Amino acid sequence: MEQTLILIKPDAMQRGLAFEILSRLENRGLRLAGLRLLQVEQSMAEKHYAEHEGKPFFAGLVSYITSSPIIAAVFEGTNAVSAARQSIGSTNPTEASPGTIRGDFGLEIGRNLIHGSDSVESANREIGIFFEGHPVIQWEKDTEKWVFE
Ligand code: DAT
Ligand code: MG
Predict the structure, then answer these.
(1) Cys-Cys with 130: which of 31, 72, 76, 100 at CB 3.0–4.6 Å?
(2) Residues with pLDDT less than 70, the chain
(3) Is this model's pTM higher than 0.85 or not?
């Protein structure tokens, strides 16, 4: 099954929205395969956001993601990457559709609550960063025949 890496960012943690947001992905039918509460260090943040190094918002992005504990999760399912991105909504919350996580809970691009991998390749890279040395569990739910055809 396809996997995606989800981060519940510091603003969602501080606002007490972590499990509300995780519930949306769980309710969608995606299967939780890994879960960690962690404090992101500078080096981990720079590695995760390497593609944005040199951009004007990079320093703010790194300081935001390291400003509070976060939750890292692996979700899996059919088209998990695109399904999660769709539930998350556009990068800028004011451009995200109502009904998406960012469209329902956010107002500013620098406080957009959640990260979701943008491709299978990114997911594999990011799962490697956040779950190195930590188990990702292989399991199936008995109800999945009602979610996965
Ligand atoms: P996404 O998180 O939707 O995958 P991205 O990978 O392009 O978006 O950027 C990573 C994060 O960087 C994004 O969640 C918020 C921040 N960001 C992106 N573009 C920005 C911009 N123009 N100004 C400020 N922050 C930005
Ligand atoms: Mg991205």
Answers:
(1) 72
(2) none
(3) yes
